[in-house]
Amino acid sequence: MSDLDAFRAEVRAWLEENCPPEMREPVRGDEDICWGGRNWKFQSEAQKLWLERCVAKGYTVPDWPKPYGGAGLSAAETKILKQEMARIGARSPLNSFGIWMLGPALLQFGTEEQKVDYLNPIARGEIRWCQGYSEPGSGSDLVSLQTYGEDKGDHWVVNGQKIWTSYADKADWIFCLVRTDKTNKYQGITFMLFDMATPGVTTKPIKLISGNSPFCETFFDDVKVPKTQYVGEINRGWDVAKYLLGHEREMISGGDSAGELVSLGGALAGVLGRNEAGQLDDPILRAQLAAFDVDAFAYRAMGERFIDMWKTGRAHPASSNMMKYVGTELNKVRHELVMACGGSEALEWDSPETKGGARPRAWLRTKANSIEGGTSEILLNVVAKRILDLPGA
Amino acid sequence: MPLYHNEDQLMLKDSVGPFIAEQAPVAHLRQLRDSDDATGFSRDLWAQFVEMGLPGMLVPEAHGGLGMGHIEAGIVLEEIGRNLTPSPFLSTSVGAVAALAKAGGTQAERWLPAIAAGEAIVALAIDEGSKHRPDRIATTATRAGNGFRLDGKKSFVLHGHVADMSIVAAKTDGGITLFAVPKDAKGVTADPRRLVDSSLASHVTLDGVEVDADAVIGEVDAGGEILDALLAAARTGAAAEMVGVGQGAMDMTVGYLKERKQFGRLIGEFQALQHRAAHLYGEMEVARAAVMKAQELLDQGNEGAKLMVSVAKAKAGRAANLAVREGVQMHGGSGMTDEYDIGLYMKRDRALAEYMGDVHYHTEQVARMSGY
């Protein structure tokens, strides 16, 4: 038996022993997702137990080094862990912008002290982070951001406004791009970290077309940030931000390909109905579902290949842009088809029978997929220039 | 296994890529076409394939081959696709070998070593109408004397007029049976037709063709599984070749965007073209991953392979088709000329798209296999 086979057997046995049965049920909605943080209220004892057991094993961040709360697994071992978790339908023990975004940035740019101090609470689900990037006047043109940190010797005084801050109202800390030099566009931004409980920080949820409010406006009014709380170098935060956008795009692209293959056409057969031959009732819709499933199965293989290559440094550094573009466009198509199959029932906005309009709200939510974290158009620009090396601005 | 090429596979790519690019670039196809070559490929080039051990890549070592897998065969096919190289590799070394290796027995012993040694070209006589419908084979094999009598018409038989042996799928009393029909069998007529991509494919007529009982590949009535193995291999191989065709077309087109000037600027500076090129890149990458996944599952003997093979053939078909259509359009008037190569990519893609089931056929298969 090879080392990896032995590892697989060990992981399988551990999961069998430690993953509570409730945590092997499919996620039914947002309430089943564990985000952690100071104010987190566990939905069930099983959710709490599952997080604690994974934390003890380093499995919330399996490929991080052990001193920072991880399990120190290789890319191949991490893949096996994910496959084995998917095999039994195990839920993610912890969802976290700290894991997906800040963590990779700290691992790359942080000091040893920062890694120990910030990564461990992320791994344990104790501190929930949010990301302060976009501003009302700085969306795709992010580098034009205006939130300003005035140098006061041992601290900055930060004033300005962020927008589209995911879960800012629930987060404990923020990683935030702040202008610290107004004379230098790219080399005048600092990547700061501060507590959302600092005086002068306020949040206001934004109501979206889905009727839900996963995003906030975040206001900074004379917020004092100690001049120790930044990542990388002062005025070189854009380097960190660019690196991190790669990870954000990796995350949004949903590179998870370990679970069982489920076709959309098969999943919607119960909704749409079948004809006497057992095929979906509407032949044109069936054809569109089949075309989607070809794309989705193929993209899943792409997700597996992308992660295998990304984690071992083989991927083109800009390839996460392509992944995010293809993945989010595909997800929008998925939800158009879900709506088409659902018919008039899928229009119901708040009936208990439709779980409060889960389908139309999810459908509308997906429209943000190709906007947040870089619009599809910006991503295509990046692919054209950095991967295809096409000329121009 | 990670879904990227390992060191050995990269070494194979590094040796096969330059070999094909030097010995059989697009100019080689043009030369065969313009001389109205009657064989459909160059025997000299095939001899060089033999020297490199390529025809027997998939042949088990016990039969004199290299015992490699579909990922390795795919590396060769991608380079064949990128260079539009005419070659019997796909039908002989991939499709036929998969069937013979699956079946074992007399015919495997007879033909696998010959294929590995480069002494046999094998054609696949599966299709009958103008569309791929392997579930509706009408060619019959009836028992006669010590063997069988074959009657029927086959179409789209690549290399059918020069093959040393053709694998013929026929209906028998209790199912499908595959037969190894040798070149000189009486009653076989191969009528080669020049196709849009300059390849030669035959209409094959089987008129009372008598074969011995041992011409059966595998067991009588049990050819379904062997045919499935043949189809899975040939489809995956065609998909890999299409990835090569699409990649070749895309690279050529992106290159053109960087040299062609209009309005005093390189046309590659225009965002309208940049976005389309970038979109194409994404589709090609996804197709490549799907094909690699199908190859991996086939090599593992995984039961999920069949679904992924159809996904790969459909996705590669769509991506390569996009690549050649965008290629011709972005080349502008030049793309319409015979002088530029991009049109040849469009033609080869059209033929490969049809081979062993087109996008629509395989999309339908995905729906069926997914239970809807």
Give descriptors for this structure.
heterodimer; A: 393 residues; alpha+beta; Butyryl-Coa Dehydrogenase, subunit A, domain 1; Butyryl-CoA Dehydrogenase, subunit A, domain 2; Butyryl-CoA Dehydrogenase, subunit A, domain 3; 3 domains; four-stranded mixed beta sheet; four-stranded antiparallel beta sheet; 8 strands; B: 372 residues; 11 helices; globular
Describe this structure in words.
- By secondary structure, chain A is an alpha+beta fold.
- Chain A folds into three domains: 93 residues, Butyryl-Coa Dehydrogenase, subunit A, domain 1; 108 residues, Butyryl-CoA Dehydrogenase, subunit A, domain 2; 135 residues, Butyryl-CoA Dehydrogenase, subunit A, domain 3 (Up-down Bundle), CATH 1.20.140.10.
- Helices cover 42% and strands 14% of the residues of chain A.
- Chain A contains eleven helices and eight strands.
- Chain A has a four-stranded mixed β-sheet with strand order 1-4-5-8.
- The longest helix of chain A is centred in the C-terminal third of the chain and has 28 residues.
- Chain A is globular, with a radius of gyration of 22 Å.
- Chain A starts with a helix and ends in a 6-residue tail after the last helix.
- The mean pLDDT of chain A is 93.
- Chain B is an alpha+beta fold and 372 residues long.
- Chain B folds into three domains: 114 residues, Acyl-CoA dehydrogenase/oxidase, N-terminal domain (Butyryl-Coa Dehydrogenase, subunit A, domain 1, Orthogonal Bundle); 98 residues, Beta Barrel (Butyryl-CoA Dehydrogenase, subunit A, domain 2), CATH 2.40.110; 146 residues, Butyryl-CoA Dehydrogenase, subunit A, domain 3 (Up-down Bundle), CATH 1.20.140.
- A four-stranded mixed β-sheet of chain B has the order 1-4-5-8.
- In chain B, strand 6 and strand 7 form a beta hairpin.
- The two termini of chain B are 31 Å apart.
- The mean pLDDT of chain B is 97.
- Classes of the chains: A alpha+beta (393), B alpha+beta (372).
- Chains A and B meet through helix 3, helix 7, helix 8, helix 9 and helix 11 of A and strand 10, helix 8, helix 9 and helix 11 of B.
- Chain A: Keywords: FAD, Flavoprotein, Oxidoreductase.
- Chain A: Belongs to the acyl-CoA dehydrogenase family.
- Chain A: This is Acyl-CoA dehydrogenase family protein.
